[in-house]
């Protein structure tokens, strides 16, 4: 008797739970059918915290995105600043090299009776050829092949002569080759690259630094060019960038050797 009662109690509990759930379901259905707007505010209140959480997550994500974008922009600005600083340092080294050379009075001998000073009528631009048009010609004794100087530095040769004008071809004309010694250590071929500049390829192990001087003894025993920068060219070589000791874009006069 007791055994049967013990096994009937769980079944009765399940039955009561099922009936209770059914009653609740029917009640909810009837309330929703009779008063459909009754549960809307309750649902909104329950869901409202979730919407606020989603908005907070979105704002936090946006903040993180802005942070990383700011870091990227800052890194780009730092890279640009470093590049500008490197350029300024190279220019400073160039100016220092010029100043050091100008302290030697023997560098400026070409201002005597055997030279004629001519005004520069046309200066070169970034074009295929580096050339000057000067206001002195055949009537002044200028001839093809005469060397042209600026501040004592040889910069080119007279290429064409007219009655009162002449054209000076600069040594930095593209594809023009000049053999020079850099820092007095080794001879190398400088190739004109326009704009008063040159390029040269040398073995990487040869010590060359910005500010070193190049001397083309076949042209003049004086300073011919100055190393502006050195870059790795691969395969055990380095590319050297040089420029004339004067700014050809600011020339107002030149001296022509008679």
Summarize the structure in words:
It contains two helices and twelve strands, in the order ααββββββββββββ. It has two domains: 37 residues; 149 residues, Thrombin, subunit H (Beta Barrel), CATH 2.40.10.340. The radius of gyration is 43 Å and the shape is elongated. The strands form two sheets. A six-stranded antiparallel β-barrel has the order 1-2-5-4-3-12. A six-stranded antiparallel beta barrel has the order 6-7-8-11-10-9. By secondary structure, the protein is α+β, with helices and mostly antiparallel strands. The chain starts with a helix and ends with a strand. The chain is 37% helix and 31% strand. β10 and β11 form a beta hairpin. The longest helix is centred in the first third of the chain and has 63 residues.
Give me some keywords for this one.
single chain; 258 residues; alpha+beta; Thrombin, subunit H; 2 domains; six-stranded antiparallel beta barrel; 2 helices; 31% strand; disordered N terminus
Q: Can you identify the CATH superfamily of the largest domain?
A: Rod shape-determining protein MreC, domain 1
Gyration radius, in Å: 43 Å
* Shape call: elongated
Biggest β-sheet strands, sense, barrel: 6 strands, antiparallel, barrel
What is the chain-wise order of helices and strands? HHEEEEEEEEEEEE
Using the 3D structure, state the CATH architecture of the largest domain.
Answer: Beta Barrel
Q: Whole-Å distance between the termini?
A: 142 Å
Percentage of β-strand residues: 25-35%
CATH topology of the largest domain: Thrombin, subunit H
Mean pLDDT across every amino acid position: 75
């Amino acid at each position: 008797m007791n055994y049967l009662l013990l096994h009937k109690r769980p079944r009765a509990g399940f039955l009561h739970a099922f009936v209770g759930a059914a009653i609740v379901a029917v009640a909810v259905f009837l309330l929703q059918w009779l008063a459909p707007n009754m549960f809307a505010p309750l649902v909104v209140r329950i869901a409202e915290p979730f919407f606020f959480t989603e908005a907070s997550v979105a704002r936090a994500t946006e903040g993180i995105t802005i942070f990383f974008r700011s870091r990227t922009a800052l890194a780009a600005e730092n890279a640009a600043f470093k590049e500008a600083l490197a350029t300024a340092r190279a220019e400073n080294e160039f100016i220092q090299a010029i100043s050091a050379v100008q302290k030697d009075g023997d560098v400026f001998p070409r201002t005597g009776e055997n030279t004629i000073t001519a005004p520069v009528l046309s200066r070169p631009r970034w074009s295929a050829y580096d050339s000057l048009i000067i206001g002195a010609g055949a009537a002044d004794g200028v001839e093809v092949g005469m060397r042209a100087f600026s501040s004592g530095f040889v910069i080119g040769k007279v290429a064409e002569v007219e009655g009162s004008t002449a054209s000076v071809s600069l040594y930095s004309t593209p594809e023009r080759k000049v053999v020079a010694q850099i820092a007095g250590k080794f001879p190398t071929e400088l190739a004109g690259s326009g704009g008063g500049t040159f390029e040269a390829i040398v073995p990487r192990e040869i010590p060359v630094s910005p500010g070193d001087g190049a001397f083309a003894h076949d042209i003049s025993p004086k300073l011919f060019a100055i190393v502006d920068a050195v870059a790795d060219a691969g395969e055990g070589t380095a590319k050297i960038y040089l420029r004339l000791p004067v700014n050809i874009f600011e020339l107002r006069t030149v001296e022509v050797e008679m």
